[in-house]
């Protein structure tokens, strides 16, 4: 692909994922051209991105001339079917996380892309959260010493299940917080500390919906670190986002990276406030600690890296086998819950 040629993109889905997490970054990056979007919201798309056309379905999208990339931002139960169609059309493909509801179908999708020679990657955007980027740097620098325990949480208070597809879809079809939030938390833990096995899991359905809404997982990493991961929609008081304990000191941070809320409120990529947290972390010990500013989050870096990969052959921003390792652990956790 020539460096002077904008990468023409077809986007499948214009719900929250497509409208908030993908379209703004594609539109803001000169390496890409948002050409066509599968959506029934043609008027909204025209107002947001007048250069893109709305199409009725995936078949119409794949018939659109000159596409170089397809981004799958449809609900999880549709990911495999939509990604398969894009791969079979010979078009480079990005799938929002989790890219499959289970490891078997995820593995088959990776093998299909490999056999076809089609670039395939997964949008694990939380790798570019500012708090995680900060912690990853500290771990790599050895600032905490040997990390013995890693705690990570995505928690909020939503006591009624509601009627969203995530709450009304069974876990086996892609619903529930373990796939939705665990796809982030487990990916981050593996990225920090490497391969792990499930040591304990509590998977609960507190609200009576179709899938779990309250999960606690313990992972034992080969390196010796233990990860404690919480994901819950029914936490009236949330704990620290990260609490990391090492032989030399600890890291403690609160609150979620601000990019999702900022993008949802209409802030655009390129705004210097995007990704800048209003809180600081704590680094050190109870007796001697310092406030530590968090590095800005940068979801746009996923697409910058993707453009470099498609144009120059550099590594894809996320190896899909990393995401497959996450799904394998999630499958184990679901099996653990049925014991």
Automatic annotation (TrEMBL):
GO terms for molecular function: nucleotide binding; oxidoreductase activity. It holds the Pfam family GFO_IDH_MocA_C3. It comes from the Bacteria. Residues 132-250 form the GFO/IDH/MocA-like oxidoreductase domain. Residues 7-122 form the Gfo/Idh/MocA-like oxidoreductase N-terminal domain. Keywords: NAD, Oxidoreductase. InterPro entries: Gfo/Idh/MocA-like_OxRdtase_N, Gfo/Idh/MocA_oxidoreduct, GFO_IDH_MocA-like_dom, NAD(P)-bd_dom_sf. Belongs to the Gfo/Idh/MocA family. This is Putative dehydrogenase. It comes from Leifsonia aquatica.
């Amino acid at each position: 692909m020539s460096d002077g040629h904008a990468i023409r993109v077809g986007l499948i889905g214009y719900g929250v994922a497509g409208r908030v997490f993908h379209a703004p970054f594609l539109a803001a990056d000169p390496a890409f051209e948002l050409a066509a979007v599968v959506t029934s919201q043609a008027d909204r798309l025209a107002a947001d991105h007048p250069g893109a056309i709305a199409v009725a379905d995936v078949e119409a999208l794949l018939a659109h001339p000159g596409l170089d990339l397809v981004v799958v931002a449809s609900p999880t139960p549709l990911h495999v079917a939509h990604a398969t169609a894009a791969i079979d059309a010979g078009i480079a493909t990005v799938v929002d996380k989790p890219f499959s509801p289970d490891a078997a179908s995820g593995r088959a999708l990776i093998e299909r892309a490999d056999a076809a020679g089609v670039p395939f990657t997964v949008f694990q955007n939380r790798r570019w959260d500012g708090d995680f980027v900060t912690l990853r740097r500290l771990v790599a620098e050895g600032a905490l010493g040997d990390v013995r325990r890693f705690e990570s949480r995505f928690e909020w208070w939503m006591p009624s299940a509601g009627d969203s597809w995530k709450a009304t879809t069974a876990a086996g079809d892609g619903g529930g917080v373990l796939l939705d939030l665990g796809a982030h938390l487990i990916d981050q833990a593996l990225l920090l500390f490497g391969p792990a096995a499930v040591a304990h899991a509590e998977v609960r359905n507190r609200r009576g919906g179709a899938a779990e809404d309250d999960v606690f997982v313990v992972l034992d990493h080969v390196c010796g670190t233990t990860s404690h991961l919480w994901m819950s929609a029914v936490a009236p008081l949330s704990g620290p986002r990260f609490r990391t304990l090492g032989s030399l000191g600890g890291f403690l941070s609160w609150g979620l990276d601000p990019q999702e809320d900022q993008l949802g409120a209409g802030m655009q990529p390129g705004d210097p406030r995007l990704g800048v947290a209003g809180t600081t972390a704590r680094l050190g010990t109870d007796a001697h600690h310092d406030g530590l500013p968090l590095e800005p989050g940068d979801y746009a870096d996923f697409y910058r890296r993707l453009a470099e990969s498609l144009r120059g052959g550099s590594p894809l921003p996320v190896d899909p086998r990393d995401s497959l390792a996450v799904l394998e652990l999630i499958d184990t956790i679901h099996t653990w819950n049925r014991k």
